[in-house]
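lol forgot to send this yesterday, sorry. struct tokens for the thing we talked abt
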């Protein structure tokens, strides 16, 4: 195969080997691999030896190199990633279809909420946010759901510079935030009342995997559409989505970060 001057030669050959063998379930012999990749046997031998030793390839009884379990596991982790986020997207869409309010899925990243998925409300007046956006977790319902297991000392370590207000309603006292998180743990829901965005209220639930909070889902509602009736409906929808996602995660042995 032709070399790209911008690529590392040895790394490119490793990838060429894997792509070649993956393209043919019958595999290839040592000589065939060298011929198809146009590489000398002397340089190909240590590559193939290492790939076999690390279980990326194996050699069958006809001396043909084939894909082994580690390569399969890597490819399968990509499929798990796609399948999991498809499930998330589907659950968010179901929530929005029923309550007609904006729904988010996020993780905690260095003290911030990092939005990974979002379905907008069909209403013209709704919360404005974007996938990939980051915002301090302490000022959002999503973030409070993600911080539910943090105690006072943990919060102070996470935010050594203190809690900077995002709006006039942002909680900037560590003791008050810790008390609110304790109540959220007891109830199972986290709340925000115009703490990161004026005129927006949110409700959120954490998502657990292997006993640890790994993500959260929230519903954001403009204050003029918020009511106890809508709040009750949203909590039912969030609890249902929470249970479904946590059950889905039980099927994955991989680290949660590999799924997102």
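and heres what i got for the seq, position by position
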């Amino acid at each position: 195969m032709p070399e790209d001057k911008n690529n590392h030669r040895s790394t490119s050959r490793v990838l060429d080997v894997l792509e070649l063998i993956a393209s043919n379930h019958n595999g290839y012999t040592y000589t065939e691999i060298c011929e198809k990749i146009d590489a000398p046997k002397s340089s190909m031998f240590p590559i193939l030896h290492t790939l076999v030793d690390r279980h990326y390839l194996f050699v069958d009884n006809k001396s043909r190199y084939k894909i082994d379990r580690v390569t399969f596991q890597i490819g399968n982790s990509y499929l798990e990633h796609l399948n999991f986020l498809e499930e998330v997207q589907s659950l968010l869409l179901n929530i929005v279809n029923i309550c007609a309010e904006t729904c988010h899925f996020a993780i905690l990243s260095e003290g911030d909420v990092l939005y990974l998925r979002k379905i907008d409300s069909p209403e013209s007046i709704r919360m404005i946010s974007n996938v990939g956006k980051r915002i301090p977790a302490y000022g959002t319902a999503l973030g409070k759901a993600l911080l539910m297991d943090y105690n006072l000392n943990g919060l102070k370590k996470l935010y050594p510079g203190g809690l900077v207000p995002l709006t006039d309603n942002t909680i900037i006292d560590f003791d008050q935030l810790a008390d609110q998180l304790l109540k959220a743990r007891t109830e199972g829901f986290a709340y925000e009342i115009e703490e990161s965005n004026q005129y927006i209220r949110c409700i959120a639930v954490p998502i657990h995997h292997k006993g640890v909070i790994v993500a959260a889902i929230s519903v954001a509602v403009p204050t003029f559409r918020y009511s106890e009736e809508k709040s009750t409906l949203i909590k039912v929808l969030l609890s249902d989505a929470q249970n479904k996602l946590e059950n889905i995660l039980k099927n994955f042995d991989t680290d949660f970060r590999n799924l997102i």
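DSSP finds eight helices and nine strands in the chain. anyway ping me if u want another try
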